[in-house]
Amino acid sequence: MTTLERAEAAEHAASQELDRIVVKSAIYTSGERDPRQPAARPPDQGKRYMMGDDPRLPRMPARPTLFDFFRLRFGPSAHPLQSARLARKSGADEKVVLACLLHDIAIAGFIRADHGYWGAQLLEPYVDEEVSWAIRYHQALRFFPDASVGYEYPQMYVKLFGSEYTPEPYIHEAYRHARAHRWYMTSRLITVNDLYSFDPDVKVELEEFTDVVGRHFRQPKEGLGFDGSPSAHMWRTIIWPTKYL
Ligand SMILES: [Fe+2]
Ligand SMILES: [Fe+2]
């Protein structure tokens, strides 16, 4: 079997254990397979397709809050929690603390590529414009040093992408735009507090930020995903990532 055949066989075996057939969104597999080709589908054997709650995932409450997403859908939150704590310890404005807490939610629970933009879009209806703006541009600012605040190009990026890597032109353009903007420093402070090497013994609880979130995140009473906001569908996709349609 080729690697692809093995992956498809494993996937087939996994979907056999479910009583619903899961067909992955094109974006999950694009690259691993050529998205222009028809997707190999196991015979449905009379099963229905996944619509709604995927039994492999913890069930979300009917009116989910931001913290429900952190607990039930996002990856480990040591990175954002420690970044937010660092921001708070430095005496940063609460808006900056919130931005640090939320800056990587797209990586944690949605789409990694262009995570700053996706994260900003998810949050725009619920936070101050300055917060989502800062989250959008932190992605670009991470690639550009600012000696005035002691921010250097991350060694982590040299390791991850190689020393010869240079970002695409749109990132350079975003940097130039952000550099000249009045909210530049809000976004820059996300990068300053963006902490990757931390003490694994230090445990920060989400509750440490209940007050900041309560004051600066407009939690919809219908729950995230069900309030009809411009990004509600994105939150629903995080709740039901394997829905057929
Ligand atoms: Fe980031
Ligand atoms: Fe980060």
Whole-number tally of structural domains: 2
CATH topology of the largest domain: Hypothetical protein af1432
Helix percentage range: 40-55%
CATH class placement of the largest domain: Mainly Alpha
Shape: globular
Structural class: mainly alpha
Count the DSSP helices. 13
Work out the radius of gyration: 20 Å
Fraction in beta strands:
under 5%
Describe the structure using short key phrases:
245 residues, mainly alpha, Hypothetical protein af1432, 2 domains, two-stranded parallel sheet, 47% helix, globular, binds fe (ii) ion
Q: Would you give an account of this structure?
A:
By secondary structure, this protein is mainly alpha-helical. It folds into two domains: 3-49, no CATH class; 66-236, Hypothetical protein af1432. The protein is built from 13 helices and two strands, in the order H-E-H-E-H-H-H-H-H-H-H-H-H-H-H. The protein has a two-stranded parallel ribbon with strand order 1-2. Helix 5 (94-102) crosses helix 11 (184-192). The longest helix is centred in the N-terminal third of the chain and has 15 residues, at 3-17.
